[in-house]
Write a structure and sequence with these properties.
This is Twitching motility protein PilT. It contains 9 helices and 5 strands; from the N terminus they run βααβααβααβαβαα.
Length: 176
């Protein structure tokens, strides 16, 4: 079901947090296969959960169950082969980028600096909204539900989105 994305699909903390905040991590793990994240992302989610962001449990459960695998070698690879990245990115985004790059996967991030570096490294890229668009295009998600999730991210999680509706970025051949 992951056509359109090069596998594995590596999720950063913001993306996992967005989907966790709308209890839709299960949707991701159902429609996409070969999902991964980095050890530092798991740590960020655990820390967020510990300080009171209970909704992050959805993401942590997906990691614990193995539905989202951990790219365990990312920290070592970052240290050995990509020393300059930590000067430009937070550890979670850096490890996620390295995890995607070393296996020619897709990085899923909304972080501007990570997106820029992904381009520099020629890593396939999408973001939280890109996953929503994919869901609508493939008939796995209605525009109404996608927009509901997007609204929650914007209004309750202070997510910056360049659009107010997924419909604004759907391909022209997709019927609303």
């Amino acid at each position: 079901m992951s056509e359109g994305f090069v596998r594995p699909i590596v999720l950063d903390a913001t993306v996992l947090s967005n989907y966790a905040s709308t209890a839709s991590v299960t949707w991701l793990t159902t429609i996409l296969d070969d999902l991964q994240t980095a050890p530092a992302v798991r740590t960020e989610l655990e820390q967020g959960h510990e300080v009171g962001y209970a909704y992050l449990e959805h993401a942590l459960d997906a990691i614990e169950s193995g539905d989202v695998e951990i790219a365990e070698t990312a920290p070592e690879q970052l240290q050995q082969d990509y020393p300059g990245i930590l000067a430009r990115l937070d550890r979670g985004e850096a490890e996620a980028l390295v995890a995607a790059h070393t296996v020619d996967g897709t990085l899923v991030t909304d972080d501007g600096a990570a997106r820029t570096l992904a381009g520099d490294y020629e890593v396939a890229l999408t973001g939280s909204i890109g996953l929503l668009v994919r869901g609508v295009v493939h008939g796995d998600l209605s525009i109404k539900r996608a927009d509901g999730w997007l609204t929650t991210w914007i209004e309750e999680r202070n997510y910056y989105a360049p659009v107010d509706s997924v419909a604004a970025v759907l391909p022209e051949d997709v019927e609303e």
